[in-house]
Every structure is written in C-alpha cells, then in structure tokens.
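Re: export button greyed out
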Amino acid sequence: MITTFLRIIKYGFLSFWRNALLSTATLSVIILALLVFEGLIISNVLTKTALTSLQEKIDISIYFKNDTLEDDVLKIKKSLEGLAEVKKVEYISKDKALEIFKEKHKDDPAIKQSLEELEENPLLASLNIKANDPQKYGIIADYLDKTDFKTWFEKVTYAQNAIVIERLGKIIDTAEKGAFVLIIFLALIAILITFNTIRLAIYSNREEIGIMRLVGASNSFIRGPYVIEGIIYGLIAGIFSVIIALPIIYFLSPYIQIFIAEMNLWNYFTSNFIGILIYQLIFGVALGVISSVIAVRKYLKI
Amino acid sequence: MIIFQNVSKIYNNNSHKMTALEEASFNINPKEFVSLVGKSGAGKSTIIKLLIGEEKPSKGRVIFKSYDVNKIKQRELPQLRRHIGVIFQDFRLLPNKNTYENVAFALEVAGRPQSDIKEFVPQALEMVGLKNKIGNFPRELSGGEKQRVAIARAMINHPDLIIADEPTGNLDPINSWEIIRLLLKINELGTTVVLATHNKEFVNYINQRVISVENGRIIRDEEKGKYILE
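Workaround output, generated via the alternate export path:
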C-alpha cells in the first residue's frame, strides 16, 4: 500500500521532469490563470475600498436654528437612529462646530481675527447622518421632510445635493454588480483555459495510459501520477504567481494611490502576503488536480 | 486454461454490422504453444482482444482460468491482465521510461516489493540479452531491442499466458528469428504461448499446434500443424 503510494509520487515527479517542455508550457498557462485570479482578488479589494471611500463622502446634514435646545436635537438624533436605513448619526454641537472651524482655518489670520471679534458663536449645531446604503438617502430625506421637528431645521443639505447623491448611489450600485459579473466571467475563462491545457497534456499521453492498462495497472495507479503532477503544477504556479505579482504591485501601488487615497496596495499585499499565497496555492492545486482527474478519466476505459 | 465457447464478436459501426469473429470454439491447455494464423483482418486480433478483456464477446463465452471475460468488471481487468503477458507488433513500451523502468513497471502495478524488482528485472533483461541497455529509453533502442524489452516485461510477472500479436511484424528477419526463439524458450520454461502471425516460415519451424482463422471463422485446428492458407 505504502510502496504503491510512494511509486505513484515517484512517477508523478518523474513524468513532470521528463516531459520538461510540456510541463513548462502547462505550468506557464496555469501561472497566467492564477495571475488572473490574483488580479481579481486585488481588483475586488480596490473596488471595495474605492466604493466605501465614496460612500463615506455621502451624507445628509441637518443644521438647527439658533434657538433649538440641545435636548431637542438629541431627541431627533434618537428618532433618526431608530430608522433602519440609518447607519450612524453624529451630533455636532455649536461649540464643537466652532472648534472644528477654528482647527480648519488655524493658518488663516483674517478668519481667526474676525472670529475673535464676534461676541457670539455664529455656527449652528448640526446632525450628520450616514445611511447604510447610498440609495437610501432619499428615504431619510423624505422622513426629515415629514417630521414634526421640521420647524427647528435651519437647512437640510440633502435638498441641495439630492441629484448628485442619488446618481452616485446608482453608480456605486452598478459598479458593484458589474465588478461581480466581470470577476465570475474572468474566473471562468481562467478555469477553462487551465483545464484545456492539462487535458491536452494528458491527451498526448493517451497511448501510454492504454499501455499501462494492458500491462495490468489499476486505474488509481495510472491516475495517481497525474494527480501528483497536478499538485506540483498547482504549487509551483501558486508560488510563481505571487512572486511575479510582487514587482508589478510595487510599481503600480503609487499610481493607484493617486486615484484612491485610502488604498496603499503595496502595504495591503505585503501584509496579506501569506493569506494570498495560501489562497493561490489552494486554487492552483484544486485546478490542477480536478483537471487531471477529469482528463484522465476518458482514457481509462481500455 | 482458455476456453472459447461459440464466441462471436460483432461490431456496430453507425448501424453497419461487421462480424469480426463467428462461432469460434477451442480450448488451450497449460504449457501449449499455439500459433494463430490468418491474413490481416481474419480475426486474430479480435481473439486476442477478447482474451485480455479489451473487448467483450457479443455471443458465447470466453473463460481464462477462473475469469469469465463476459462478466468481468472494469476494475477486475488489471487482475486478469497480470496473469497475461502481451507482446505487440508496435512494442507499446512506455516512451518516458527507460528499459529498466519499463520492465519494472509490470511488477510495480502488481504491488510487488522493491526487493523483488531489484532481483527479477536484471534477470529478465539478462535473459533477453539487454543487460547493457538498462538505462536507455525506447527511442534509443532498435526495433529488435524494443521487442525484447517488451518480452522481458511480458514475462517478468511469471504469467500463465504470453500472447504475442504479430511480434515480428516490424522487424528484420534476423531479429524476428531471435524473437521466435525467445518465445520458444519461454514456452519450454512452462508458460503457455499464443502467437498470432501470418509468417509461414515461423509456423512451420515451430511445428506445434496451429489454429487457422479466415473471415472470422476457425477453419482448421491441428496439433503439429503447418501454415496452410489458400
């Protein structure tokens, strides 16, 4: 049993080594396929980060009239937090607003001076509302429009930005769906190409498989070395795909940061290196083994 | 040891029926040397395919030892084939394995231990006179050498039966005689040999049982026979 297993492993390596040209060709295709997978993982992270950062920028702010009591504002905050569509409500008091304003303009002496001349804080208290889903801002705005507290509102920013927010919401939604479809599509292509390559490699061995059958080899003894070869393909291709990606990502990372400020791709890649490597190895091995098993099956019927 | 009972084999090719073997009946006993003669397409190869379970009979029964080829399952085929050594016209060596590995392979598939392989493979190669070609790959061997590797592989498992299907078809006369002498030697050592051939000279030289096939029918079956066709 163990001898047979060791022989299968030996023949897997031997066949990989002796068909060096075929192995290299097959390996190259699997590496390319895995690079596509890697690209998909990364582009998925990129779109997610880009979309979240966009979503973070969308909000509705309610500015309250000067004479509104803080208790009333907090009451509104509580009622808003009860809404299913609302993710977060932030209360910015008059004092806090002033603080933020001062901080923002600390380098501008003219504003600093004019603020000091004012006896009273000119800024308004506000509630900053973030929705779970950018599509839901309309519902929140409707709610605000119908509420009894409306008399306290000085202004609601949604009204001004309604069109932009709505459009942005739709774009984000479409982008998410589009990316998903694209990922499935590309992954499918990569899988099919790998499968076909391995199938061709085994097709060129079909006579050998027939001979083995005639000499009295059992199916598992014939299939075994191909499975081992599939594993070798997967492991080597997995490692190579990650190594090849390293310099590419190092080079691209600064350019990506220009588009998405929150995204440092190089840091992401290096800090998740082991995870990505394991992921690639699993994918490579699974692809290699499954393709081999399916491809060999056809020639085992002699 | 081998029993063919009213065996017919009919191939169905696109609704076109082709009878390769019709009502063939014969027995082969242990230690016999049987020449199976006939022209190409007469049905020799069909008989061989039925023996090694590559095909199943359309009618009748084929029995080899305790195996009933009609009923044998796909996963039992390897067991059957380990009792039979087969030698083909086109050698059918594994191209990516060297001489030693090609012969060792037959032992490996049978799950024999490494010590057996180390002992028996050199012996078998010595018998066929290829001890100096142990590390060569099939592409580096001549036709005669390849066929001798195939013979070493066929007999390494000490099979009950050796089937040689036109083993000299691709060889020059000198190498052909070499192969025939090897087969006779194997037979003398106690193994049943079935030799399919259309070479009159060899059959007459061997001077043992001859089964003649023509158009899928067995037309003659004689002890100490000669090659008589047309």
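Chain B is about 30% helix and 30% strand. The button fix ships in the next patch.
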